[in-house]
């Protein structure tokens, strides 16, 4: 049985190669766009109005609308990384974008503990001035040294709530059991005579209900979302003065950032500015909502005066501030830079 070998002329092979090359050229831009996907992670519920989720969604939406070969996929509710896993993933380039309470990183980068320091920020306008200050420039330099860049600044405020007397002055916490948000606040409140019970904000309701807590210190949003008005009698929302401000920026990995072209970087920077402006107004509305909800439920709502604020600052200076200066190399200089912002 004979077999025949089929021969193809060289020109046919050349035509085939050319057609394949043309097809690849048509498909490549779409493939390149699909490959430039940035994962964004945060710990809050998605699609339920949380300001931090909405900030990240703004960035994702603007990236898609710009049509520059950039897709941001958002993973809310700690579905991609646990909250404290996000910073190392970001720093090493395994995660592209996150919304993160920066104080979570204080064990790795002690300088950032200043971003959850009692009385460092007085109100939302003061927070804006801090964002534009040499202090923030230095903080951003420190973050860059760890491979992280800021896309949007965000400060969220909080206050006090009590099942007993209203909390305005340090004397009001002497002898009470309180949950504080962050180590620096625990140090200040302990110095004022309070007994500290450490727990996540999700456990405050049960702590108040069972009598483990007399009062709590947390964010404006948590006072509402956890329905603490069912347990509390008096609250101190942020007003002209507030002790509790927490820096929760939108961050991007510099390893990822450096792989983007100038057009893609410009889109993310512009989206970050939009997200920052949105968060400023949303944070103020969250404070107003905090007060309104408690008034609707017949709870007493009080506000700190400048004298109250200054009394707390004196307590913080000899506790939280002193500990920061003692424990952090260059801490005094960094603290002074923050306090210089009027």
UniProtKB/TrEMBL annotation:
| Pfam families tied to this protein | DctP
- Please list which residues make up the signal peptide: 1-34
PANTHER family assigned: C4-DICARBOXYLATE-BINDING PROTEIN DCTB, PTHR33376
Q: Does the keyword Transport apply?
A: yes
Q: Highest taxon of the source? A: Bacteria
Instruction: Tell me the lineage of the source organism.
Output: Bacteria, Pseudomonadati, Pseudomonadota, Gammaproteobacteria, Chromatiales
Q: Which InterPro entries match?
A: DctP_fam (IPR018389), TRAP_DctP_sf (IPR038404)
Could you tell me the Gene Ontology terms of the biological process aspect for this record?
A: C4-dicarboxylate transport; transmembrane transport
Print the keywords alphabetically. Answer: Signal, Transport
CDD domains xref list: PBP2_TRAP_SBP_like_4 (cd13680)
- Organism from which the protein derives: Alkalilimnicola ehrlichii (strain ATCC BAA-1101 / DSM 17681 / MLHE-1)
Per the similarity annotation, which family is this? Belongs to the bacterial solute-binding protein 7 family.
- Protein name per UniProt: TRAP dicarboxylate transporter-DctP subunit
């Amino acid at each position: 049985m004979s077999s025949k070998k089929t021969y193809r002329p060289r020109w046919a092979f050349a035509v085939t190669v050319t057609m394949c090359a043309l097809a690849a050229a048509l498909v490549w831009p779409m493939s390149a766009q699909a490959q430039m996907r940035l994962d964004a992670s945060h710990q809050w519920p998605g699609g339920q109005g949380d300001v931090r989720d909405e900030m990240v969604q703004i960035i994702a939406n603007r990236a898609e609308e710009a049509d520059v070969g950039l897709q941001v996929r958002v993973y809310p509710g700690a579905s991609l990384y646990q909250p404290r896993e996000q910073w190392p993933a970001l720093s090493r380039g395994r995660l592209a974008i996150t919304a993160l309470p920066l104080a979570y990183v204080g064990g790795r980068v002690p300088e950032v503990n200043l971003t959850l320091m009692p009385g460092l920020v007085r109100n939302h306008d003061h927070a804006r001035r801090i964002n534009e200050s040499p202090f923030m420039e230095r903080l951003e330099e420190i973050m860059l040294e760890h491979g992280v860049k800021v896309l949007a600044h965000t400060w969220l405020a909080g206050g006090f709530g009590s099942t007993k007397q209203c909390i305005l002055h340090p004397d009001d916490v002497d002898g009470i059991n309180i949950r504080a948000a962050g180590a620096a606040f625990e140090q200040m409140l302990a110095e004022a005579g309070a007994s500290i019970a450490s727990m996540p904000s999700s456990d405050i309701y049960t702590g108040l209900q069972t009598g483990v807590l007399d009062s709590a210190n947390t964010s404006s949003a948590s006072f509402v979302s956890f329905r603490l008005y069912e347990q509390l009698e008096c609250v101190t929302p942020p007003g002209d003065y507030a002790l509790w401000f927490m820096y929760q920026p939108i961050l991007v990995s510099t390893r990822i950032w450096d792989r983007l072209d100038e057009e893609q970087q410009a889109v993310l920077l512009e989206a970050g500015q939009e997200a920052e402006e949105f968060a400023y107004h949303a944070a103020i509305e969250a404070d107003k909502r905090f007060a309104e909800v408690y008034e609707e439920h017949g709870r007493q709502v009080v506000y700190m005066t400048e004298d109250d604020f200054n009394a707390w600052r004196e307590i913080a200076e000899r506790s939280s501030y002193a500990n920061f200066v003692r424990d952090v190399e260059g801490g005094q200089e960094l603290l002074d830079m923050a306090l210089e912002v009027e």
